[in-house]
Amino acid sequence: GKKQVGVLGLGRMGAALAGALLGAGHDVVVWNRSPLKAGPLVDRGARLAATPAEAASADVVLSCLSTYDIQQPVLEAASPKVLVNLTSGTPAEARSAAAWASSAGIDYVDGVIMAVPQGIGTAQSRILYGGSPTAFSAQREVLSVLGEPVFLGEDAGLAALYDLALLGIMWSTMAGYLQALALVGTEGVAPAAFTPMALSWLSAVGGFLPGIGAQVASGEYATDVSALDINAAGLGLLVETSRAQGIDASVPAAVRELFDRAVASGHGAHAIASVIEEIR
Ligand code: NDP
């Protein structure tokens, strides 16, 4: 049968989670600090709990609040049997929440949502989990409603680590794209004209990742494609041109500084993958 699911937190994300669960026919009980936000969900059949504890009497409880610090007192008041924590934080915060849950006798899974609220319940949504394997298996069907569930292992901090690693790729990609738009924009090129080229370039760049990963794994940085010193020089041209065109150059300058240090450490003739030695 369908499970009773409690949802703590009805911000943009929590409301999307509760909505998807309702859509899948689950019995959903919700709690939020500002109860008015529950209105649309109640109209769709959710029950509004007056306290976190009332929502936590459900078979499984999902929590999605702004931060771990905000969440902790809510969790202590709720005291659920099984908790799937979907609030974003650091691996250390996730591990300390898991330690608290264990001491409170709560079966704990820590998840990170690799989607925006509008993507929840669609094929564009993937959620990474770590923590109790038994709780994850038991709740797999409920969690599948939200997005493709991926279990990373028993370490409750792993999902947060993956989250930050993946978001780091997103943020540096977006910063690079914005730098590019600003740069071509200095000559009147509109985003709509440039973006298709950026997209196909990004997929070509993505094609290099497995090779870079293999070099990082082996520690063998020989290249007959493109040496680091040529790339560092190219970054120098980007910094120089950004400044000459009157725009900020801090993003390429930061990457250039890192590449230059790797060159100075003796990696000039190596592949870009060798920069990881400097990062480490
Ligand atoms: P919102 O700002 O929309 O919602 C924040 C939630 O936290 C609301 O339920 C809010 O309650 C509650 N809250 C804030 N302060 C307090 C407090 N002092 N006491 C009790 N409750 C409080 O954020 P999102 O829903 O977007 O994000 C929630 C979590 O989901 C974050 O950790 C975020 O990183 C993560 N996430 C969000 C994604 C997104 O695209 N939005 C993507 C992936 C993860 P109230 O309604 O009363 O203000």
TrEMBL record:
Name listed for the protein in its UniProt record: 3-hydroxyisobutyrate dehydrogenase
Which GO-annotated molecular functions does the record name? NADP binding; oxidoreductase activity
For whether the record's keyword set contains Oxidoreductase, the answer is yes
Q: Where is the 6-phosphogluconate dehydrogenase NADP-binding domain?
A: 4-151
Q: Name one Pfam family in it.
A: NAD_binding_2
Q: What family classification does the UniProt entry report for this protein?
A: Belongs to the HIBADH-related family.
Spell out the Gene3D superfamilies in the cross-references.
N-(1-d-carboxylethyl)-l-norvaline Dehydrogenase, domain 2 (1.10.1040.10), NAD(P)-binding Rossmann-like Domain (3.40.50.720)
- Domain spans labelled NADPH-dependent reductive aminase-like C-terminal: 155-280
The record ties this protein, via SUPFAM superfamilies, to:
6-phosphogluconate dehydrogenase C-terminal domain-like (SSF48179), NAD(P)-binding Rossmann-fold domains (SSF51735)
Alphabetized, the UniProt keywords read: Oxidoreductase
**Secretion signal span:** none
